[in-house]
Amino acid sequence: MTTPVWKPSQRLAFTTDENLLARAEAARRASGLPVYDLTLSNPTAAELPYPADALMQAFAEPSIAEYHPSPRGLAPARALVAADFARRGASVGTDQIVLTASSSESYSLLFKLLGNPGQAVLVPEPSYPLFDYLTSLEGLSPRPYRLAYDGRWHVDFDSVDLRDVAAIVVVSPNNPTGSYLSATDCDRLASLAAQEGIAIIADEVFADFPLAPAADAVTAMAGRKLPALTFSLGGLSKACGLPQMKLGWIAATGPAVLVEQALHDLDLVADSYLSVGTPVQVALPKLLEIGGALREAIHQRVLRNRAGLAASIGADSPCTLLPAEAGWSAIIRVPEVKNDEAWALELLREHGVLVQPGYFFDLRLGATLVLSLLPPPRIFDPGIAALLATCQV
Ligand SMILES: Cc1ncc(COP(=O)(O)O)c(C=O)c1O
User: Fold this and answer.
1) What is the pLDDT of residues 269-295, one digit of tens each?
2) Residue to mutate, 127, 128, 132, ligand 1, most ligand atoms under 8 Å from C-beta
């Protein structure tokens, strides 16, 4: 008898073995020793004031018993999202909004809309590592373009290769660099995209968490009259600290004729799944209200932790905190006596401090550690103290 052989799709070719840090974390947790998790990025696990009763009440609406399938989502919910763009200074019509289950799903729908199998998607580097997965799962491949750092992050246009490209992804503010796209880079990228007939996907999920934005930071691409078709992504997950609700959105902007055709075709894609639940759409007015308070609480936490971190790094410390314009992450440059993975492993094994090495994000600035600004003070403060004490070489 032949042994059955599992043959997954090549779309799963990105699957990798568990890395050393994940193994070290499992061992540390199994030992029962404390872990100061400075990678925490789930706001519901960050000891923030989640009003469980109000969240339950938000769903107490008789209309959750009805089903009105619609590829873009229910009009009243889309109108609220359009109004939320206005809060960020961008005027977007209700018809330009498409609801999804998450930003990751927004990427998935847009890659289906824009890409032919085998095509490349331009993605920023450094950035968060999910793009390998999101592109491969759609039969596409990520093609990095570099963000260069000279005290500020900007697009390295020499690394932008537009051959056979399905879409250009911009993450603004980027994770983990915390950099908004500058107006100059935005306009140059948009004019290149328009010339080549390539759409831009602008991931703005962290746009609501400014730290120290540059004067020319583009905080909402939908608010800028760009010559390229642009899809701006956001969602409850980050902007309202409500990832468990599973509601994301896409705003299509740019030349009207392209927007109209793109939305028509995006309807076909979205109609094949209809993945957004009715309850979350019906509850949206109240969720946005609750989310506004959560956003503020998250923002205060991030500001508090970043200020504490900056203050803890003395003038004579060999560590430096990279400036950031926005977002939930911080990047610390540590001495290059060992590489970033070795630092991360030492911090975890010997002090229980969990951080991510910069290479996870393709940071190429010597030895860097990436940490989240979301953890509660009782974890963040001792974690940072141990990190800075360890990296005093
Ligand atoms: C830059 C960026 N975009 C999108 C996402 C995913 O967001 P969502 O939870 O809405 O899928 C993340 C998650 O960390 C992220 O860092």
Assistant:
1) 999 999 999 999 999 999 999 999 999
2) 128
